[in-house]
Design brief:
The complex is a heterodimer.
Chain A: E1 5-7, E2 10-13, E3 19-24, E4 31-37, E5 44-50, E6 53-57, E7 65-68, E8 75-79, E9 88-95, E10 103-104, E11 108-112
Chain B: E1 3-7, E2 10-14, E3 19-26, E4 30-38, E5 45-50, E6 56-59, E7 62-66, E8 70-75, E9 84-92, E10 98-99, E11 103-108
Parallel strand pairs in B: 2-11
Antiparallel strand pairs in B: 1-3, 3-8, 4-5, 4-9, 6-7, 7-8, 9-10, 9-11
Classes of the chains: A mainly beta, B mainly beta.
Chain lengths: 113, 109
């Protein structure tokens, strides 16, 4: 079991550019979650999938954010027209119902200049 | 609205000095209280899940307990390698995890 992986681990971009992050969950975990974490704060929920269906989105997820999980395995999170306020750590987690525990990946740290 | 509050924000201990971290939660219909450890620049690492008041779980120098309104993470005889941020999260119904801001623990040799 290799755990949750995320790519890239670090991304520096200029304001206005688009960025895409990838998350590979633990194999056989059918739930996948995206969170955002800023310095000194706990992770904040963005969205989650069960298999390929996106079941819930936070109000934090503006129209510039989109997430997909086309085949129910890996997921991508895209941010369009990045803003400096998007600078944060983006975390992915997965779980397998009925167990409630979510296992997190190492995160992607985004810096928008 | 579900809320999780952790205290203290930061805690500095001497090696071997036992202490407790607090997590107060306000959720309707708790379906799990979770503790994670997070090292700088890394993702949270799962420690414990507690489901009902009175439940306790232990792992090495850590012990987590749960009441109807709070959870405690007790650290016995901590070592410098226990230094990290400890995050508490709660879940009610089918909602996603709601995290506290964490407690930054520093253990000095």
């Amino acid at each position: 079991d290799t755990g949750v992986s995320q790519d890239p681990r670090h991304k520096i971009t200029k304001r206005g550019q688009n960025v895409t992050f990838r998350c590979d969950p633990i194999s056989e975990h059918n739930r996948l979650y995206w969170y955002r974490q800023t310095l000194g704060q706990g992770p904040e929920f963005l969205t989650y999938f069960q298999n390929e269906a996106q079941l819930e989105k936070s109000r934090l997820l503006s129209d510039r954010f989109s997430a997909e999980r086309p085949k129910g395995s890996f997921s991508t999170l895209e941010i369009q027209r990045t803003e400096q306020g998007d600078s944060a750590m983006y975390l992915c987690a997965s779980s397998l119902p009925p167990m409630e525990t979510q296992y997190f990946g190492p995160g992607t740290r985004l810096l928008v200049l | 609205e579900d809320q999780v509050t952790q205290s203290p924000e930061a805690l500095r201990l001497q090696e071997g000095e036992s202490s407790s971290l607090n997590c107060s939660y306000t959720v309707s219909g708790l379906r799990g209280l979770f503790w994670y450890r997070q090292d700088p620049g890394k993702g949270p690492e799962f420690l414990f899940t507690l489901y009902s008041a009175g439940e306790e779980k232990e792992k090495e120098r850590l012990k987590a307990t749960l009441t109807k309104k709070e959870s405690f993470l007790h650290i016995t005889a901590p070592k410098p390698e226990d230094s990290a941020t400890y995050l508490c999260a709660a879940r009610s119904g089918n909602t996603p995890l709601v995290f506290g801001k964490g407690t930054r623990l520093s253990v000095i040799a």
